Amino acid sequence: MKLLVGTMGGKAQVFRVEGDTAINLTAALPQIGNDLQALIEHDALMAQAADVTGEAVALDDITPALPVDAPGKILCLGLNYIEHIKEGGYDIPDYPAMFLRTRQSIMAAGAPLVRPTCSDQLDYEAELMLIVGKGGRHISEADALDHVFGYTVFNDGSVRNYQRKTHQWTPGKNFDQTGAIGPYVVTPEDLPEGAKGLKIESRVGDEILQSSNTGNMIWGVAQTIAIMSEFTTLEPGDLIALGTPPGVGHAKKPAPRWLKPGEVVEIEIEGIGICASPVRDEADLAKAAE
After folding, report:
1. Does the N-terminal peptide bond of residue 67 adopt cis geometry, omega within 30 degrees of 0?
2. Residue 247 contacts by C-beta under 8 Å, 6 or more apart in sequence?
3. What are the boundaries of each domain within the chain?
4. Which pairs count as long-range contacts for 37-42, CB under 8 Å and 24+ apart, including other chains?
């Protein structure tokens, strides 16, 4: 099933996507609410959602919102593609690099990706993201895929000079409105097992910035869930980002390729969709809000 959370008529609702149209699930089943959390937590409600019929609306009439409005945790992998590790000058690790993102750092697909006033080094990172369905601790790799609700697209926008100010990546990965998510969530039965073997790409216009395949990840979905659940209890609605392939802006030669205001960066994952974000300067947004 392909799902979309978005606003229509000023109200956030949940839709089932069918081609270029969508069925309003919240209108038919009000208990679903205004994001995916109820569907994640209640299998019976999810089964009902699959059978909803009704008038289809155009996708263009829906403004995307976050799939999960208030995730308990946003867990992220770094250094999960060998060629990306090499381009960054890192050694290939035997345990994944991990970091956390805050709620303020993420936003829905289509919302501005904000270049902060203190830096012009805003970089892009195409990533597969999963939404935890069934929670748990000490989840085995063999059982891990049963804990996935669905998959979406993530742009892990990174402010590189702040990322490098410290051994911990927290500042560079948590500027407000730098992590775009969505717009679509696809449930596991509609994708290859573990979302493996999907083309993943980032671009600005006709300029292809990254192009790889999720089959090139060092730690796949099942391994990542097992590793993360060793140290934290995963909960329904948690978000897990799975790292980026090579081609990021800071590693471009002969000069870095930073995102600039006025550009639109697109992240596309085969079978899931395109996460498009217009790049805006923080100062310009502040002036417009005055």
Report:
1. no
2. 84, 87, 202, 209, 210, 211, 212
3. 2-64, 74-289
4. 37/68, 37/69, 37/70, 37/236, 37/237, 39/3, 39/14, 39/149, 40/68, 40/131, 40/132, 40/133, 40/149, 40/236, 40/237, 41/236, 41/237
Q: What is the structure's pLDDT at 290?
A: 82
Task: Measure the CA–CA gap between 203 and 277, rounded to whole angstroms.
Answer: 11
Tokens of 35: 């994001």
Averages of pLDDT over runs of 10 residues in the chain (290 residues) are 96 97 97 98 97 94 98 96 89 94 98 98 98 98 98 98 95 98 98 98 98 98 98 98 97 97 98 98 90
Q: Half-sphere exposure of 198 toward its Cβ, with a 13 Å CA cutoff?
A: 27
Compute the radius of gyration of the chain from its Cα atoms.
18
CATH of 74-289, one of 3.90.870.10, 3.30.300.30, 3.90.850.10, 3.40.50.300: 3.90.850.10
Choose among 133, 239, 238: nearest CA to 181: 239
pTM higher than 0.90: yes
Q: Please give the Cα distance from 7 to 20 (Å, whole number).
A: 16
